[in-house]
Each structure stands twice: as structure tokens, then as C-alpha cells.
Amino acid sequence: MSVMPVLITKHSLYFVAMENLYSSQLIKKHPVLPARVMRMNTPHGEVFTPAFMPVGTRAMLNYLTPTDLTDNGSEIILGGNTYHMLCTPGMEIIETVGGMHQFMGWSKSMLTDSGGFQVLSLSKKGTICIIDEDGAVFKHPITGKIIHLNPQTSIQAQKVIGADIIMAFDQCTPETGGREAALSALDRTHRWLVLSKEQHEKNPYSLYGYKQALFGIIQGGSFRDLREQSTEFILQQELDGIAIGGEVIGFDMEKTEEIIDWVRPMLPDDKIRYTMGVGLNPQDLIDVVAKGIDVFDCVAPTRNARHGTLYYGQIVEKAGWLAFKNESENCRILIKKSQYAKDPLPIMPDCECYTCKNFSRAYLHYLFKEGLIAYFHLASIHNVHVMQKVCQRMREIILQNASLDPSTKPV
After folding, report:
1. How far is Cα 233 from Cα 218, in angstroms, rounded to an integer?
2. What CA–CA distance (Å, rounded) separates 202 from 192?
3. Predicted confidence (pLDDT) per residue in 295-322, tens digit
4. With b meaning 16 or more CB within 10 Å and e meaning fewer, what string describes 161-184?
């Protein structure tokens, strides 16, 4: 196979195979719903959607190893948030070890976050983050270190992180503040997108020679005209993929679905669609995929697990689509409850994860009550497995139903 030199750094001369590229392709559409299967190729592998991305904000998945993730069906993760990586360990250390893939020991595809969400969350604390028209100035909450985050520095940091998919720097739209706040965030997001793209196009490769895809983020809050305006602007930039962001996305699922319906008719078929922060519950994934979304990320599965909330239900087929259901309204169990102290059953009787195949609710209840680390590991394995199993079943049902529709052909 022929190779080409791509980048010279202080590390070495990097040679990259001709497959060092990013692409996305529509494979099948559901015959009735907007749901679809996409194939995404990155320099670190192939990803089929719908795909849930477990979140490693601080360069690790809490209580999970890369082997745990791959064993449970993860093909892509969100690895290393830009703001947190600038705080610690810092770009120098990440660069020295060869990027986030090497640092985390993760060999498959990776997306990283621009730090835009921290602009929203930390600006609420006033003294930690101050926003201006150029970007944001953060004060490290422990060391007092000043961090300047703007379109240029965010993209530069994401080049050092080395993720396969990087995000344009944006201002996540708050749900408070009304239309004025949404307009302000929209204007900044669009201006910062242009600057992010300019910085990225100076060299569309990571510091380690891998081709990176740049996604833009649709903002606009809960205002339809602003969401449509933002979508049109994003599409004009001819980016590799399209994200839908804002504080409301994933937090208010009814509004999230409504926003997707507003913008979906404008979106091209061949670009990945990403709802940021969706995945509090397994049903949330099913609902956004039914609306035409491809990928999503959320800290909730592992966070819920650590706090004793375990997903519990069945993936059932109804009218050509799926639902995650059980006799409980919220499809979860709280393992701390005394009713599980002597329960010999696994969390979910039909679940194939390592935890359910080997351990009882009684054992998990004991581990949780004692605060033992083994609980956090086993519980996180189960919750991530459930999310990936839901994605697997969605891919299967889309392909199964599409194959029965002669008008649906591979692109």
C-alpha cells in the first residue's frame, strides 16, 4: 500500500496510509420513519449508526476500561473534553504521549468536544468564566490558571488531542434569557464557526497526521426561526457533519424531538447528524433515531450506574419500530432498595452483559451499600451495554425493514 508523508513535528515524520480519511455514507432508510443506518469511516475505523458514544470527559470512562467498552459494542467514544484537557493534564503531556488515543489506550474512533458547553455552564459562576465576542476566559478553579478559549485555541487544542471528529467552537444556548440570549449565542456561534473552519483548514490533520472531520453545531434555542436560520448557515459552510446543540437538547426530550422535526427537512442525507447530550434513558435513543438522528453522547449511563440507578427493561418491537419498556414507568431499578438484598436474579434476566451473566441483584446491592469499587465497575458495564444493545437492535430493524422495501437501495 502506498503511503504519503503528511506532517513533520518535533516527534517524527508521520506516514499515513491512503485510507487516512473521513467519510460518511447512507446505507439504508427505514421505509416509514426517518430512521436510517449510516456508515462512517475515520482513520481509526468504521462506525455504523445509530451509535451511542460513551463519554470520557476527563480522558477516561469512569470505572470502565477500553476493553469493557469494545466488549459491549462501543465503536466510537467522546474522549477528552477540550476545556478539561487544557486544565489538566495540559496539551504538552497529551502531545508528548502521542495524542488522546495513545493516552487513553483507545484504538477506535473518537470525537471530542470544543469546550463550548463549559462556556455556558461555567459562565453561570461568573468569576470562573467570562464570555466576550472573541471567546471565553476561564480561571482554573483550583490553580487559578487563566485559560483563553476561542475558535483558534479550541481547534489548536483539538489538533493536539487528535480526535477523528472535532467540533467547531460554539456558545451553547441557554434556555433562560429568552430570544435575546438565543440570538446572542447564535451570532457568536456562527462567527466562531467561520473562524474555527479557517483554523481547521490550515491543516485538516491532527498533530499526528490523521485526517480530522469538522462538525458545526446548530443553535437557536427553542425558537424555530432561529434553528432554521442556524441550520442554513451551518450547511453553507460545507462541513463534514452536523450537530444539534443547546441546553434544551437531551434535557427536554419533547422539545428535542420538535427541534429535530424543524431542521431535519433541511439536512442532507449524506452527513452524520449528532444530537449533543442525548442519552439519559434508553428510550431517548430510540426516539431521536426515529426522527433521523445518527449519533449521540451522554454521561448519564455511567453516572446513573454510580448512583445506583440501573437500566431495566426489554427492547420490544411494535409497528415496525422499537420501545424500551417494562412494568415500571421509568425502566430502571434503584439497587440500594432493601427489596434487592436477597434477590437472586440478574439486573435484567435477558441481558447478555458480563454483569448480568455473572452476578445477582443481591450481590450488587451489597457492593453498593458497602461503597465498594467493584459495584461501580459492574454497574457501569451493564448500563453501557444496554445503550449499545438498543443501538444494535435499531440497526437490525432498520436493515430488516428496509430490505423489504424495493425502493430503498444503498447509496
Report:
1. 9
2. 16
3. 999 999 999 999 999 999 999 998 999 9
4. bbbbbbbbbbbbbbeeeeeeebbb
- All cell numbers assigned to 405: 422495501
Cell of 394: 435499531
For the stretch 347-404, pLDDT in tens is 999 999 999 999 999 999 999 999 999 999 999 999 999 999 999 999 999 999 876 5
How far is Cα 194 from Cα 348, in angstroms, rounded to an integer?
48
- 73-89 burial: b if 16+ Cβ within 10 Å, else e: bbbbbbbbbbbebbbeb
Residues 43 and 22 sit within 8 Å (Cβ to Cβ): yes
**pLDDT band at 408; cut points 50, 70, 90:** very low
Catalytic residue numbers, as ranges: 113, 297
Nine cell digits for residue 361: 441483584
Residue pointed to by grid coordinates 469499587: 373
User: Is the separation of the CB atoms in 14 and 209 below 8 Å?
Assistant: yes
Which of left, alpha, beta for 301 (phi over 0: left; psi -120 to 50: alpha)?
A: alpha
The whole-number average pLDDT for the span 199-223 is 98
Number of C-beta neighbours around residue 117 at 10 A: 22
Locate cell 436510517: which residue? 36
Compute the CA torsion angle 91, 97, 100, 104 (nearest 10 deg).
-130
CB neighbourhood size of 372 (10 A): 12
User: What contacts 372, CB < 8 A, 6 or more positions away?
Assistant: none
- Grid cell at residue 123: 459562565
Side chain identity, residue 394: M
In this structure, what C-alpha cell is assigned to residue 342?
436477597
How is residue 152 written as a grid cell?
Answer: 483558534
Q: Closest by alpha carbon to 164, among 77, 57, 48?
A: 77
DSSP code at position 187: H
